[in-house]
Task: structure prediction
Amino acid sequence: MGKRGTKLPTWTDRLNDMQRLCESWNAKYAKYPLIGFGYRSFVGRKTAARAAEVTACYSFADTISQFAERFNPHIESAGLHLVEVLERDGIDNMKTVEGVRIFFQELGKGSQFSFSQTEVWTRLVISQAEMMMKGGHPVAITDVRIPDEAIAIKEAGGIIVKINRPDVPILEHPSEHALDDWDHWDLVIDNDGTLEELRQKCKALFVVK
Result:
């Protein structure tokens, strides 16, 4: 019980204090202010980003999803509209539905709607990352798939990391191959072991000891 007239810290106050502490820790121990992970599906991009001790992870696909959900297209393979698939499966699992994955990929390369140009969502995500970086908070972007995205990250002062994983299927879509011949990667990580081995590789590369 605090003294009379003393405001006790609320749950929100404690949460904010914890967040500031985490951000301060991340800013001190992360080597790079901005890291982009690419580029194919299922190679461990999100796992690598979490192991890099960044404050925040962003995704170009999240911005595309906001466009998609606003227009709520019908996904024929699911027999439902996109928002209904989202409610049923959640944001991560819904993208495993074939029709949903194809829709996002097509939207990502700008073929579904004329206004959906690459630079629109790229600029939005980079702007969010730059705001965090100005506050001293390191950031990861977990889904670098095309040259424009990679170049935008480099221009913002970031590095680009390619993750290879030999035991996963390679999907046949332009967004899965757009960086096949791109040779401006700053680092390459071979994810050819256990999940913990990938985490340790990332910590060795991205975290100040």
User: Anything to note?
Assistant: Residues 84 and 97 are 12 Å apart (CA to CA). The longest helix spans residues 11-29.
